[in-house]
Queue: 4 jobs
Job 1
Amino acid sequence: MPSLFSRLSRHAHNPLRDPGEERLTEAFATTLEAAPEATAELLRGLRLGTPPSDAPLAVTTQRRTAGGDRVDIELRYGATAAPELIIWLELKKDAPPDPDQMQRYAAALNALRCSSALALLTKRGVVVPDSTSGEHTNWQEVARLLGVWSRAAREESPESHATVLVVEFLSYLEEEELTRTEAFTVVDALALSNVEKASARLSEIVELARTEVGTRWASLVVDAETKNEWQARGKPLEFFRYLYPAELVAGIDLADQGRLLAEWVSRSFELLRDRPPVANA
């Protein structure tokens, strides 16, 4: 079985699939596999069934269905050939729910002819059509239930592999902005007290950078053929490059920070020009 780090790092950017969602799937699956007691509590809390206490748990990601779909996570309790309970989980990070997809999953799961459940996990507040098959829950509820388990586990076995991994996964959900479970702190209070001034300064930096970039690229002309080619591709490809706050605040004033942001934007497109992505074969 591959290590956790291999499972997380193998998902490079793919225009057809969201690598962030793929990594979320692997992280969640690893946590469920490593902490079967927490998994059982989670499933009961989400009303997905009561796992048999003496049955082994097998966790599989990207489970292929008979129709060719790929379910994000399968939890299978009992023997592989004669399971006592199967639960399929479809995870959403930013992508919208797909009722047709869930209907296909429900049909494929029913065809297995054993005790089963299907669930869709999304961000809190996402509207799911009433016709969508399976249970619908959100990452906030997942974090709440795992948090209840982890608080009890930390008192009994704070350094166990299962406890540590669940706590780390909860931190990961917070970092990915899928949940809000950490306590409100003095740092938060101070940030709120200065949010209007900070927002105004940031808006000014963006406007200065916009003007600078416009000046630098004023002579850029995109011919009609290139425009038509871009439009024919439909959904544009997405590329990511991060500007760390320390790079921006290095400027001595707003004008200097605007210049730094403009240089970063220009450099990003120059890198793309000089080292364009290679199309998949």
Job 2
Amino acid sequence: MNLNKLLLMSACLCMLSDPSAAAHLEDGMNAYMVGNYAKAGKFFAPLAEQGNAEAQFRLGTMYADGQGVRRDDRLAVKWLNLAANQGHASAQQKLGIMYRDGRGVQQDYQEALKWFRLSAEQGNAFAQRNLSAMYGEGHGVPQNYVLALMWENISSSNAAASDSANQTELVEQNNSVAMYMDPRQVEKAQRLTIKCASNNFKGC
């Protein structure tokens, strides 16, 4: 099932006590999916103000990417932060990117790692791939190819089990650190991959 549809279903389940809000979120999502961002924003904005994490994430993404609005990184960070602090995995991943790249905030690799890790622990394949890159490049952490390959493996596995669009995008990003590792390091990374997956990505 498409990841966006799963997110919508999850958000709607959380809003069963307010059918009108759920309907507005669905209307916003439908407009967003077909690229009618201006219409989507009209549905998302009031829901975001009311504290709906999915609407906050979508609104933050729209400001970050200039979808239907003038790009505004500070507003993007505002809405992404609100959603991320409610545990929204995709918002945590996107907020991590903002801190990594210094968009709307001072560049802060430690803060980026924090949000990538929180999202990765929820199974977000993009956050897992970004954690891999942070370890591979030594951004905010000592360079560690073993952990970089572990997160790369986990990300690839999750992407393969996800929708085809996510799988394709992550495959295109693939730049394996295995080429820089000796066989024993690769073997260790494989063991850690299995252990991390068995622990549901916690404490990795």
Job 3
Amino acid sequence: MTNDAPSNRGPILVVDDDDGARTLVALALKRAGFEVVDASSGQAALDLVATTPVSLVVLDMGMPGLSGTEVVEQLRARPETLTLPVLLMTGSGDEYRLAPDEPPQEARSGGAYLGAPPGGLEPGHVP
């Protein structure tokens, strides 16, 4: 599989405190031909973005310390990351949902949202 993204763009930053989820997302992106860097916390992500230009942030919403929404708020407060694309994701089906088919306000303000179905995902679940 080839990557049609411009070669002058930075890597994709994957941020999740869950090692397994972070590794899975990073592996899928690498297999698709993207360069990937990762961080295990919101603060580590902000530190990395301050020194490494990235083209996209894939960000878990529910992390200890700085949550995904707090990271987005800090990214939007910096002129150099104001327009940085962010894809918010969560493995929880209920924790961040306001209505069954509507992403939360935090996700709408952050950009794209990728969430689990209500009740979360069962092992072996294929949508």
Job 4
Amino acid sequence: MIAVTRMRTPRAAELMRSAKEKAMTKPTHAPPITTQQHKEWYHGSPLRIDTLCAGSTVTPVPDLARAFSHKPTRLDITIREKDGERIVTIRHNGRQSGFLYRVQVGDPAQDLRPHPTSTCAPGEEVLATRDLPLEFISEVPLVGEYESRQPRKQKGGQRGYETV
């Protein structure tokens, strides 16, 4: 029987430390999905529910909530500029229909907190701090991709968000 011993060089040890440090750092955030102020909050679920439980995910982006309603294990967000518009495409691998809800948030500073492991832009994926009432909006048939267009500027210099 032959025993093999691997010796680590100082460079190999340095690379391993660097890899461990990278794995322990916070995730980098994606660019914002929406350019509008966060005024309304949404939740997507495969279940019909009346109340959102504390710790559940909330988002100001309706298409993101729609994608979450399908319970995907993978979600890809692409943002591109074309002809003066910002085009956001959300793809997912969910396999079930769902439901879209408006979350009745009284005070976002009290009712919501940042999601600790989200890679979305700050404020675009947050957690409920307490049980919150829901308003049913619609059923969400299974669609593998959502696309929205955001004009760069609307009248009066306000930014907008339009679902296609």
